[in-house]
Amino acid sequence: MRIKRYLAHDMQEALLRIKADLGKDAVILSTKKVRQKGLFGFFKKPLIEVTAACEEEKIVKKDEEAIRQESLALSLQMTQIKELEKKIDSLEKALKEVIKKEQDESISQTRELSKKNFLDVMKENLIKNGVENEIVDMLLSNLNTEASINSVVNNMYKEIKNMLGAAAPLSFNSRLPKVVFFVGPTGVGKTTTIAKIAAKLMFEDGKKVGFITADTYRIAAVEQLKTYAEIMNIKTKVWYEVNEYDRIIENFTDSDVVLVDTAGRSHKNQEHMEELKAFVHKANPDEVFLLLSATTQPSVFKEVVNTYSFLDDYKVIITKVDEVSTYGNILNIRYFTQKPIAYITTGQNVPDDIEQFNPEQFAKLIIGSRVL
């Protein structure tokens, strides 16, 4: 075990140095304030001494692990591409067999039968991947059935990619601080997602971040956000009553962005939804993110989306993508919300398990299928 002590001006600086030196698996053993040496040290802000430790093996293998993870990610992408190519080859082979069996039919009759067979297979494939029937029928109706098989597959991919739309991550304008609300039903992972975005804004974009939590229904939620805030040295305020907002936001005049965590509201609880409306109306946020789980059934998130229709504009974050084996729900959410998708989350690790939405990647996953 390797143990090191770090002197830093604040906790954020110490965490950055520990992560760079010992890696993300390092464990903080202790922290304390240390008065700077010398007479003038009494008039200066005390430093923070942080003791951290990490297993020697993990330090040595840190770079190797990063390379291994990149190789695995690249290997996964190549595997998905090869699977898609195999599926297309399989479809072509199946059609050739159909044509061979029907060789006594006229050329026009054979083409008509093979095309119908192909479209049936494609429709079944999309449904097995979780795409709603309404969307499948619309996609098929937009295809040119006179085109070749390869053209039909390529056009289907383009249709799905266009329907998914471009990613719409958090953006910045001239207003500071930028106020961003995170809303959604219970259990979708709002607090963890906020921590992931905050970490990326701080460590990758150099932004100064503040937290406001309006989730006072769950004490654990407040404590969870405060824990993340303490680790990242982020200023945090709790918002209890609507009319407290003006006083609270004055604490963040030096921040670039303020992320507001709201209580998970049941879309069937009208009283709670009215409270949320009041909070949103009072703050008039620059952006709102509605979080929806990839595991939610379409019939349920349709109700959720309808309940949040009071929002003038919002973007979508899809959580728990790592918990599904098919990806049709990504397309369903985009279609029924008609709102851009900003991010997807793929686990509980902060800040790693979040990424900007990639429509090309998910179009390939949606059109592909393990059953072919």
Short description:
Keywords: Bacterial flagellum biogenesis, Bacterial flagellum protein export, Cell membrane, Cell projection, Cilium, Coiled coil, Flagellum, GTP-binding, Membrane, Nucleotide-binding, Protein transport, Transport. It is built from 13 helices and 11 strands. By secondary structure, the chain is an alpha/beta fold.
Structure explained in plain terms:
The chain has 372 residues and is an alpha/beta fold. The chain folds into three domains: 2-60; 69-164; 178-356, P-loop containing nucleotide triphosphate hydrolases (Rossmann fold), CATH 3.40.50. It is 48% helix and 17% strand. The protein is built from 13 helices and eleven strands. The chain has helices spanning 11-22, 56-60, 62-101, 107-128, 133-141, 149-164, 190-203, 219-232, 245-249, 270-283, 298-307, 328-337, 359-367; strands spanning 2-8, 27-34, 47-54, 178-183, 209-213, 235-238, 257-261, 287-293, 315-319, 341-345, 354-356. The strands form two sheets. The protein has an eight-stranded mixed sheet, with helices on both faces. Helix 8 links the parallel strand 5 (209-213) and strand 6. Helix 4 packs antiparallel against helix 5 and helix 6 (149-164) crosses helix 13. The longest helix has 40 residues, at 62-101. The radius of gyration is 26 Å and the shape is globular.
Net shape = globular
Strand order of the largest sheet: 6-5-7-4-8-9-10-11
SSE string: EHEEHHHHHEHEHEHEHEHEHEEH
**Percent strand:** 15-25%
Summing up helix and strand content along with how strands pair, one would put the structural category as: alpha/beta
Instruction: Give the rounded overall mean pLDDT.
Output: 81
Question: What is the count of distinct domains?
Answer: 3
Helix content class: 40-55%
Largest sheet properties: 8 strands, mixed
Poorly predicted spans: none
What is the second-level CATH architecture of the largest domain?
Answer: 3-Layer(aba) Sandwich
Q: What's the total number of strands?
A: 11
Rg, please? Answer: 26 Å
CATH homology group of the largest domain? P-loop containing nucleotide triphosphate hydrolases
Number of helices: 13
Q: What's the CATH C level of the largest domain?
A: Alpha Beta
In the CATH hierarchy, the third-tier topology of the largest domain is known as Rossmann fold
Distance between the termini: 50 Å
